[in-house]
Design brief:
With 182 residues, this protein is mostly beta strands. 7% of the residues lie in helices and 35% in strands. Strands 1, 2, 3, 4 and 9 form a 5-stranded antiparallel beta sheet that branches. The radius of gyration is 19 Å and the shape is elongated. The termini are far apart.
Length: 182
């Protein structure tokens, strides 16, 4: 079966920077609904469209087609006492960029440094500003179910689950690291 709109694609991948330094190697494959549903980068969909199981490609994606350019305006310094304790580098908080209205879309800020009574928060994606090199191998291709197309994402193994456990109890485990900033 060829990869086309409304197929579920399973891809094994290695992610490196443009210099070949390994960033991530999949222990579990990426599984996404093909066809513009934002389950993966558009450049990856473009490279895999029409391909079949076993296809392998090395693809370089520039920042504009991945996670954007690094924006120094998305780095802010907050007073340590405005954030919860315990506080560690790598923790994440939801907030809005400085100078933005509260109506603006919030971002996830990552704690990148803690010094005395100040905390550096970065609203950029960790891979912003980096040209990325993907080594992709198609593992499986199948027709999406009607429900997956309606919901616009994959269900089942490695996908999203709907049902009796949709009360977001699994989010409770992440509660310690993600708090809103006001």
């Amino acid at each position: 079966m060829k990869i086309a709109k409304n197929t579920v694609v399973t891809v094994h991948y290695k992610l490196s920077d443009a210099q070949g330094n390994l960033i991530e190697e999949s222990s579990e494959p990426m599984v996404y609904l093909h066809g513009g549903y934002e389950g993966t980068l558009p450049k990856i969909e473009e490279a895999l469209d029409g391909k079949e199981v076993g296809y392998n490609v090395e693809l370089q994606v520039e920042p504009d087609d991945a996670f954007g350019e690094y924006d120094s305006k998305l780095v802010k310094i907050e007073a340590r006492n405005r954030l919860p304790t315990p506080l560690e580098v790598g923790m994440q908080f939801e907030g809005t960029p400085d100078g933005e209205d509260d109506d603006e879309q919030s971002l996830i800020f990552t704690v990148t440094d803690i010094a005395d009574d100040k905390v550096v928060l970065d609203g950029n994606h960790p891979l912003a500003g980096i040209a990325l090199r993907f080594d992709l191998t198609v593992g499986e291709v199948r027709e999406a179910t009607e429900e997956e197309v309606v919901h616009q994402h994959v269900h089942g193994a490695h996908g999203h689950h709907h049902g009796e456990h949709d009360d977001h109890d699994d989010d409770a485990a992440d509660e310690f690291r993600s708090h809103p900033l006001h």
